[in-house]
Amino acid sequence: MSVMSVPLQASARALRLEFKRNAVPYLLPLLAAVFYFDALRTADGFPPVWTLRASVIGNHMLYAYSAFAGGLAAWAGSREGRRKTVDLVAAAPRAAWARLSVALAGTLCWLLLAFVAGVAVLYIHTALQATWGGPPLWPAFVGAVGVIVVTVIGFTAGVFFPGRFTAPLVAIGVLVLSDIGFREALSVTASSGTYALLSPATSLPVIDAGVYYHVAPDLPITQVMFMGGIAVALYGVLGLAPRLRELAWAGGRPSLRAALARGTDRLPNAVAVLLVACGVAASWTAFALAGTAKPDAVGGWQIPALHSAATDRPVPVTMHCRSGSGFQVCVHPAFSFYLHDVAAALDPLAAEIAGLPGAPRRAEEVASVSGGNEVQSGISGNPPVFEFSADYVGPMFGAFFGIPNAAAWRAGFREGLLNAFIEGPSQHPGPVPLDPAQQAVEDVLLTAVGSQPLGASSGQTAVNGKLTAATLANINAAARRFAALPASARHAWLAAHLAALRAGTVTLAQIP
Amino acid sequence: MTVAEVLKPSAVPAAPAGTARRIRAGIWLTWLHLRTRRVPAAILALAVCGAVLRAALTWHWTFATGPYAQQVPLIIEAGAAAVIAVTAHSPFGEAERATGRWLPYLRLFAAIALTGLAILALQLGAVGESLNEGIPVLARNVIGFTGLGLVCSLVTGGLLAWTLPIGYMTFCQYALLEAWTAPWTWPVRPPDDRGAWIGACAVFAAGLVLFTVIGPRTRLSDDSC
């Protein structure tokens, strides 16, 4: 047996005892229940897109784990003080730092194990449903470092302020801090300062984040550096705990320098001071880096000092398409579970307007953010292609966030296509309100394909807020007249008058 | 002086003195009970909770409206309840139960008094500020969370009794955003929701009765954790 193996064996034995006697396993059922009800159910409400589902780690999972990690670590850290055994164990041959490290490691291992298990459940659940992509590692890594830093904060609080109230107060303190960070992160703009981006909890990413472009790791790197720095610095403070305690008991009479330079403890003290310095430096650097963040072109944030241009390139992908009666519908493979529904919504309408000037031959999903701006749906190109995003289809927002009402969802897609078709190419960003004649025609075409007409009541024209009761009645009357025509007659009238209708020169009275 | 004179009730002025002694002894016993449960420190911790609520409302750490507006107050209310639950721990363990019949009453008194003080402290913290959902919801949440903490102390012992209120509060943050309406999610319901009041009061009553009659789980020490 070598000289080194004895302390190693002793440490392993102490760690094993710590695992056995730690409080965390007793609370794992409660943690699992909170994980299921909060994180997993929230993730289940999102479409199975990896980046979107992984956002639950920072916004929900870390929140719940932080409360328990902080409280239980404070509980473990306050053990010696709570049991009034500080003086007793001070006489033990093992250094106080080693003793505390074992207790911290035991608590941390249990908590990290629980966290990794939670992430595994979340990712396996997503993997069973996702149709494209793979698990993003940065959110899990940020979450793990978040658990570590909260555990170290709680443990340090427990060591320095042992008492029965430390654990609950640390738990609620961590949650309040987390909520403050979340609130600040929600209102971050480039002009108002970007330091709040250090908060792991932030606003929900766009629905297709990480789908068309890679998610830049700039922000996660900064967050890990910031939280890791705090953890390292506090771990160093733990190494100085006996000296700081002596100073406190002595009323600060001996100088800190003299206490740290004491013979046998000089090396551990130097290491502890070094850790504090490194931790503070890392956190400060991360803080400074976060202040330089600026919005990137795809809806995220980039930090110039860390940014790699490679992440700005689009992710190469082959769209999933479906052709029915000459009209092709394409979506990104990450959303291919919506392909059938989108095609079912658009195919009848495409058939209804087929052959008319400017009628799209194809519908294709595009990125919802491009060049830093939200992309609205519209028809462009030659041959015409109806482009929509996972977020915007006409006036409908959050198109691929789920289908709560299938009929309304289909009508939303159809209205989006018809708006773009009847409006024609627009110079304005976003949907343009239809005039009464356009609205009447749109209502008839929607009715013809089996959708409830939205225009007169809640569609584009009404959104404009300029409709009087008389105009509404006139729109309905014109729509009834136009609907009474045979389909071929409607088609012929549209073929002849579509340009005028788009230009806004057709009145309700001119509609046959 | 005869024996009859000595035993004559009118000649014994001990009755008022005895009552006073009993009252003094009762006050002393109560004070000792409260001290062993660290109630003075708990009152300080409740004052800290009130101060944090005040700071949150003054410096707008919380949202003004919407479901998020209730998040920070909810955390602080659960924190106050967790502090009360932690006072359930006795340093004497099992041995204390053999010392007399007053222990359940002292437990009942301490729990009710601290709950009242918690509501008062948080109410004082919110004075002059706009508290989302108002004081009735604050009081209802403190009552309900405290009940949960007292129930938890029966299982985990007093020192870890903070875990259930905090865990339930964490779940309620989800229920808040999802606008759950079940009475058992009372913290997320509006002030005039009768089911929520019944739910919170039922939990508090159950916790109080069980805590009074059975008492928190005791161990000779907290070695196991």
Secondary structure blueprint with pairings:
The complex is a heterodimer of chains A (512) and B (225).
Chain A: H1 5-21, H2 24-44, H3 50-77, H4 79-82, H5 86-90, H6 96-127, H7 137-160, H8 166-186, H9 218-239, H10 241-249, H11 256-260, H12 266-290, E1 294-295, E2 301-302, E3 320-324, E4 327-331, H13 339-353, E5 362-366, E6 369-370, E7 373-374, E8 378-380, E9 385-389, E10 392-393, E11 396-397, H14 406-423, H15 436-448, H16 455-458, H17 460-463, H18 469-484, H19 487-503
Parallel strand pairs in A: 4-5, 5-9
Antiparallel strand pairs in A: 1-2, 3-4, 6-7, 8-9, 10-11
Chain B: H1 3-7, H2 14-36, H3 39-58, H4 71-86, H5 103-126, H6 134-156, H7 163-177, H8 194-213
* H/E element order of chain B: HHHHHHHH
Classify the secondary structure makeup of chain A into a structural class: alpha+beta
Report the count of strand segments of chain A: 11
Question: Helicity range of the residues of chain B?
Answer: 55-70%
| Terminal Cα span of chain A | 101 Å
Q: Report the principal-axis shape of chain A.
A: elongated
Mean pLDDT across all amino acids of chain A = 88
DSSP strand (E) fraction of chain A?
A: 5-15%
Describe the protein's architecture and organization.
The complex is a heterodimer of chains A (512) and B (225). In chain A, the strands form four sheets. A five-stranded mixed beta sheet of chain A has the order 3-4-5-9-8, with helices on one face. In chain A, strands 1-2 form a two-stranded antiparallel ribbon. With 512 residues, chain A is α+β, with helices and mostly antiparallel strands. The model of chain A has no long low-confidence stretch (mean pLDDT 88). In chain A, 59% of the residues lie in helices and 7% in strands. Chain A is elongated. In chain A, helix 1 packs across helix 6 and helix 13 packs across helix 14. Chain A folds into three domains: 302 residues, no CATH class; 100 residues; 80 residues, no CATH class. Chain B is an all-alpha fold and 225 residues long. The termini of chain B are far apart. Chains A and B meet through helix 2, helix 3 and helix 8 of A and helix 3, helix 4 and helix 7 of B.
